[in-house]
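Recall that a protein's primary structure is simply its ordered list of amino acids. Everything else, from secondary elements to tertiary packing, is in principle encoded there. The following example makes that idea concrete.
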Amino acid sequence: MLSAKLTCNSHGQDSSYFLGWEEYEKNPYDEIKNPKGIIQMGLAENQLSFDLLESWLVQNTQPMAFKNHNNQSIFKELALFQDYHGLPAFKNALVKFMSEIRGGSVSFDPNNLVLTAGATSVNETLMFCLANPGDAFLLPTPYYPGFDRDLKWRTGAEIVPIHCSSIYGFRITKSTLEEAYKQAEKQNLKVQGVLVTNPSNPLGTTLSLHELDLLVSFISSKNIHLISDEIYSGTVFSSPSFISIMEVLKNKKLMNTEIAKQVHIVYSLSKDLGLPGFRIGAIYSNDERVVSAATKMSSFGLVSSQTQYLLSEILSNQKFTKTYLSENRRRLKERHEMLVKGLKRSGIACLPSNSGLFCWVDMSHLLSSNTFEGEMELWKKIVYEVGLNISPGSSCHCSEPGWFRVCFANMSEETLNLAMKRVKAFVDSMAKQNNNSGHQKLMKRNSRRTKSQPKWVFELSFHQRQILADER
């Protein structure tokens, strides 16, 4: 009586990534109402610069009142607008904003832009456009847990991991790309492309020029697609700077070639502007067929015209966008340093990073065993005993146990300090338990040794200690 899609278990909702959210929702931290509750550190949300947006709205009331610059009402016009191509004013403002984030190094054509209700919809739409059910995309690990849902659940596409190692800072290498491609062939999967996040979620690092060159060469040699998810491009707060895949195509003089048509960019305002609730996602593609098909598909998840109008007014104010991007990056850097220093005080290190709303944290030394079972055991203690929801590396398909994604931009400074105090107390208690356990084991071992040794050994030992005492 029900569809196979409804009854299958391919959504990924049973991942520890989502289970952690469920536990948080049952017992959310509140400074007043529930001070011992779980602190949400599994949500990549940017709440650090809301005041800048709110200040702009106070000073510019006309968009919220649905009035134009002549103070005339445009409510009826916006309420009736339903063209799935999107408002031209918003698309023009969005591509200029995307160029501004990249320092003006590249420009974007609004005709190549497709609007959808958030990046989740963007990724699924691209899968429908680029892959048939059963075709595969290669993704470097660790990757965002939601991709298992976004890319596979309704499309029938498959994901083959590109296993990246901590030895190389989880960087993409030629050998890992080739190995993943061969693995797909062994599984009789047709590889349709590679999807990367740049900056990376969950690593918080930007792809190097070497990696980007490697990816362009790889998709060219295999004649496959490359999707570059750049939704965190405006969060790069320290060097090295962000390099968009568009810059690589431009510098290689590939913009008007077939290779450029194989490259597609995912963008959203959820992270850079901290507006996930506005559901603004965008596909940028140089392939007219992809743009045409994606535009038709976007009718299943349109962005409201009221939202488009408001954001077109905000993004068109270049003085505001320049100030916002600069200040937001400063705040992200400051908050990132707070987390890194706080963890360091507990003897916990992070992968060096320069972007994003999170850190990739190494807790492998706290595992009871160097296994994913040991990782889950530690994760449960952190959720239930410490009261922090963080994302275990296994939920991100990391091939090495002991890594966790920890978010820092969705809470107040006071809450982050409390989280770090909880971590410190937990690590200290673990160290104390290990010391006591080690001491008890030593005492037992000495006791067993004592019982097994003959009496004359003790007499000789006592006699030697007496001689030494007399000499001193």
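DSSP finds 17 helices and 13 strands in the chain. The mean pLDDT is 90.
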